[in-house]
Design goal:
Order of helices and strands: EHEHEHEHEHEHEHEEHEEEHH
CATH class: Alpha Beta
Pathway: Amino-acid biosynthesis; L-methionine biosynthesis via de novo pathway; O-acetyl-L-homoserine from L-homoserine: step 1/1
EC number: 2.3.1.31
Number of helices: 10
CATH topology: Rossmann fold
Function: Transfers an acetyl group from acetyl-CoA to L-homoserine, forming acetyl-L-homoserine.
Mean pLDDT: 90
Shape: globular
Protein name: Homoserine O-acetyltransferase
Family: Belongs to the MetA family.
Structural class: alpha/beta
Number of domains: 1
Length: about 300
């Protein structure tokens, strides 16, 4: 089934070139199907890149998915033209009366700041609180995961002396968990961050379960009752995303380490090896199927998601 996206969204051409079935709003309205409604709070500066990465994964499923994008009003992104935001994005004020099957909050390039020091922290906090009653299941990615763990459960982040940068091996911490269905016993996922979330802090919260961890620390943390997932890595990354970050930092004279487990024989002149593509598709497909589609009410207005 297709993914429904706004008319003329630039990601559509890329996805169609990859044989991912996309459908514009006009065509979708002609079908008598109740699609899954997903809201994405995109906090990344280059929004069209993140849009394409997420839509690629949300669109590789037998379910019809309808996506809304929002940005923060308290901090207007400087790397995305205002007319682009006007055409393809809304604000929280415009969607706060709605309910969604799923909600995704992306990473953000603000990890060097304390949470309360982020310009849009109050707004993001309000949105995360809103999501508990207005989204059946929530997916927090990278900084979004750290922010969610801090806001909902008081779990801090810690600065690392050395950047976690590369493609890291992970293992499963639980058996027979639906979100991990089809995963190998060990698998690889990209990470790119200067901060970490520690197992000891997570284990002090009875509602939370570490579903997967690895050489980069806890990777997937969940409150299964509330259907909240906190993903510390970037399975959605394109093959060349880490290369772009490495080349950028190298050009800026920052002397970055070569990304771990990325280039053949650690040679940046050679094309990187993609080890995480199947993991990314499984992760998002399992979330949509087992934690969104199979539980969300047909009439979204009847959604009463979690206790206060």
């Amino acid at each position: 089934m297709p993914i429904k996206i706004p008319n003329n969204l630039p990601a559509a051409n890329i996805l169609e070139g990859e044989n991912i079935f996309v459908m514009n709003a006009a065509r979708a309205y002609s079908q008598d199907i109740r699609p899954l409604r997903i809201l994405i709070l995109n906090l990344m500066p280059i929004k069209d890149v993140t849009e394409t990465q997420l839509l690629r994964l949300l669109g590789n499923t037998s379910l019809q998915v309808e996506v809304d994008f929002i940005y923060t009003e308290s901090y207007i992104p400087s790397h995305t033209p205002r007319d682009y935001l006007t055409e393809f994005y809304g604000t929280f004020a415009e969607v706060r009366h709605k309910k969604y099957d799923g909600f995704i909050i992306t990473g953000a390039p603000v990890e060097q700041l304390p949470f309360e020091g982020v310009a849009y922290w109050d707004e993001v906090s309000e949105i995360m609180q809103w999501s508990r009653k207005h989204a059946y299941s929530t997916f927090h990615v990278c900084w979004g995961a750290q922010a969610g763990l801090y806001y909902h459960y008081g779990i801090p982040k810690y600065w690392m002396d050395k950047k976690i940068f590369g493609v890291y091996e992970h293992r499963l911490c639980v058996q027979h968990e639906s979100l991990l269905r089809g995963f190998d016993d060990t698998f690889y996922v990209p990470h790119s961050r200067h901060t970490e979330t520690r197992r000891a802090d997570i284990e002090r919260v009875p509602e939370l379960t570490i579903l997967s961890e690895g050489d980069a620390g806890p990777y997937i943390i969940a409150n299964l009752k509330r259907r909240q997932f906190f993903i510390t890595g970037h399975a959605e990354y394109d093959p060349l995303t880490l290369k772009a970050e490495y080349d950028r930092d190298l050009a800026a004279g920052m002397h970055p380490d070569i990304p771990l487990n990325y280039y053949p024989k650690d040679d940046p002149s050679r094309p990187p090896i993609v080890r995480w593509r199947s993991v990314a598709h499984l992760l998002f497909a399992n979330w949509l199927n087992y934690y969104v589609y199979q539980g969300t009410p047909y009439e979204l207005d009847s959604l009463d998601n979690t206790e206060d």
